[in-house]
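Possible race condition, two jobs.
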Amino acid sequence: MANVNVKEFKKELKALLTKYNASIDFTADSCSDWHGITGEKMVVSFREGKSLSIKNILLQKVMA
């Protein structure tokens, strides 16, 4: 993964989201505040009403 092409990744991700008519969102528990976030997860939502919840994933910032 040392040679990640971020521009190509973003292009492919955009194409997939468009192809499947989907979006990626972030959500957390309603009790989350400035002191901490709980229940954090990414959700892939499909405009036909379905969703895919992705929990317990370590998100890392890609350093360019």
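Job #2 (started ~2 s after job #1):
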Amino acid sequence: MNTELTALEREELRMVVLGYLAPRNPGAFTAAQIAPILRRRRAVDFPFADQDVLGALSFLSDKRWAVSVSSDFGVSESFRVTADGILEAERRGLC
């Protein structure tokens, strides 16, 4: 399955991921946890890979709308929304 996303699809996926994280602010999630949930909900109308969600999370982290939380065992990388991310999601009507 070719999941090369266009710029608009990447932008939409970033917003959907932020909208997913914002109401769950105490929790931290990996891309592998978020991706199947977004697929089941049909949150976007295009196919995407777990790596695309990881890219969206990295973008959100760069904007300081999410923060990376490393596992105590040092293997998995989860992301949690920040206060700035919650404000951005509210401004955009995502939560």
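The radius of gyration is 13 Å.
Logs attached separately.
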